[in-house]
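User: structure tokens for Alanine racemase, please.
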Amino acid sequence: MEQDAFDLQANSDKIHCMSRPAIARINIGHLQHNYRLLSNLAGHASIMAIVKANAYGHGQNLVAPALLEAGCRSFGVTDATEGAELRSIPSFNQDHVEITLLSGIFDEEDAKLCVQHHLTPAATEPFQLSLLAKSGHRGKVWLKFDSGMNRLGAETPSELYAMAGETGIDIRGFMSHLACADEPDHPLNRIQAERFITICDQLSPNTPKSLLNSAGIIAMPQYAFDVVRPGIALYGAEPVPDRPVGLKPVMSLNGEVMQVRQIHTGASVSYGATFTADKTMDIAVVSMGYADGIPRSLSNIGDVHIRGQKYQMIGRICMDYTMVDVTGSGVRAGDSVEFWGEHISANQVAAEIDTISYTLFTGVGERVRRIAV
Ligand SMILES: Cc1ncc(COP(=O)(O)O)c(C=O)c1O
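Assistant: Done. Predicted tokens:
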């Protein structure tokens, strides 16, 4: 029996080595550079690194320990399941590493997970505080207020604050979230900041405050308060593109040319025959498709980077493949292909299809191997 298990492991290692080239290279040096840069921009405020959704698709198990090594001691995830997963990383098994649940808790099970894994939930509703109290939560909570985004946040902060007092649960701080920080001149930014200050001052002026996400750290650092919460900037996408601050891209999404084929005038490419050659062309078939996270809407629009040059995608992107026009280039089977990373930024790709880098990163498929470099 033991022998079988061993063989299975050996076999799976072999299979892994030979597997399809679909790789997200995670540049740890760049991640740590971004962390340090943001720490400097944040001044006296400390950093809660947002690593929810598998560290924005980059791989929580690679990203979180690297941030810990760079000096970060506070991390934000979505819910108790993500929090428990993060706590299970060996270097995270220490109480002074704070894990905040930005979406708080949903039920009794979540409250128990908070106790068991020493998690710090955000609370927006009094029932969450009662559940935590009943479960014997001895950690703290963030109280999360709405200041004008009209997403998740307590509508009546005083009620939530009073409930925290009744249950005796310690308050870690007050938190709110900005709707328009990536548009520095948007009037809602100041309105939200001032509303947040008013709420906090009325409840407890000395309780720590946290308002800014990545774009906020760049656009309105005067509101950094005690804790800032960068997500996207850690991963190297400039959050305010016309105010770049020198962030470095962390993810390079790479496939490989599987075949180069010649097609002639009138031949079409891929499903739906949406591209037709008007001359003899060389097309490269690349080893990644929409199931890997290449948005299908890039079909006939997007570029890839191969051997120092950009090439255009042609025809519809398939589940496992993307076709590229490499006419007369000398591109060959085996060449590495970058979808986004060092040469084409995720922001550039996102702009082509009217989306944001967040959706590209979090859309990277589970079957893509994340490798730290
Ligand atoms: C409450 C909260 N804080 C911080 C962040 C990080 O935002 P960003 O990735 O824009 O820095 C998020 C992300 O959605 C969030 O929901």
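User: Anything notable?

Assistant: The chain has two domains: 28-235, 251-372.
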